[in-house]
Amino acid sequence: MSQETCTLATQLIRGMGSFFKNCACSHQSRCSHPYTVRYRDATGRQCEESGYARQEDALYRLTKVYDEKRSTPRQQVDLKREIGKQRFGAYASAWLTRQRHYAPGSVRSVNQVLGSQILPALESRRMGTFTSTVVDDFIMSMEERSVGLAAQQNAFDTLKKILLDARRRGGITQDPFDGVIPPEYIPRKITIPTLDEIHALKAVGSDGLRVVIDLMSGCGCRNGEAYAANLDRMVADDVYRITEQIDGKTRQQARLKHRKPGEYRESPMPWTVRESVLQYEKEHGVDTDGYLLHTQRSVHWGHTTLDYQWDVAKKRAGITRRLTPYSLRHFFASNCLSKGIPITDVAEWMGHKNINMTFKIYRHLMPASIGRAARLLNDSL
Length: 381
Known about the structure:
The protein has a four-stranded antiparallel sheet with strand order 1-2-3-4, with helices on one face. Strands 5-6-9 form a three-stranded antiparallel sheet. It has helices at 55-71, 74-85, 88-98, 104-122, 132-144, 149-168, 195-204, 207-219, 223-227, 271-284, 303-317, 327-338, 343-350, 355-362, 370-379, and strands at 10-11, 18-21, 35-40, 46-52, 234-236, 239-242, 245-246, 253-254, 265-268. The chain is of the alpha+beta class. The radius of gyration is 28 Å and the shape is elongated. It has three domains: 3-72, no CATH class; 83-168, DNA polymerase, domain 1, CATH 1.10.150.130; 195-365, Intergrase catalytic core (hpI Integrase, Chain A), CATH 1.10.443. A hairpin with a 6-residue loop joins strand 1 (10-11) and strand 2.
């Protein structure tokens, strides 16, 4: 504490901490400067908090912390202290192992973000030393290295999940994201294929590619979910049940993204999609488990299979603008929203974790509702 401020700390009972004003006023009890409290948390780490307008507020905060320390079992205190001493690299590895709900693709993505952006900067830092300043410095280091905004946001989101997990378990005392301004990535405008382009791709593509195009544009399937096309998933004439995906790299069966093992979602199945699947089964058959799509060397499709066939079909169809297989999902969403289907239903059918993702990407595709609402309300007035 600086001698220039002439600060006098008010000592309380042993273990409770102290409060003071960090100012040079001669009558601190009557000045308007806020109080600061200083205490040791349950792990023994010294903490300071400021911004308390009255002595009563500062004392209340210290009393609350003191009571929490006294009521915390010794074993729990030791666990919090142990978490605080862990290096970030070791904690992040253990955290990722606990994310049993992550699909293999999600695990690979997190490992890639950790290895390329986070661990080089923070691997050796102890968990208990993370503060908002450390997080801010990490963001600025990415800016200095000219890391793209999309990569910055992915790194920030991953770091936030790990640190908030440590805070929830008591290893980090104060919120390390308090006052931190996160990187703001603005996705570029999505590209939606026209119906004519979809028909052109189907006309020149392989029979398997037509099934993938129909499932993605007609049912909202992800790439890997379309690779897992299966007759048994047609649970009704107009309903397709999505129960799994095929990992695009390993070509192995995997659970759905954002779903626990055994969970599924259902999507509307247009007549054209149903006929496409049945026609493929009639001409090519299915394997013993009902799966439709395979290659000469593998029992399932993978990303390289789709990428190759997609590029060939685009070239044959004379399509030069930037279209990717994922654009077919955008077509599904735009088709639903333009027909007035609630965005909550669209989010569920597409398998989004929460509606905020759907709203963020597709809000501009929703038909304007203010004018329509005004007309409807006027009819009742």
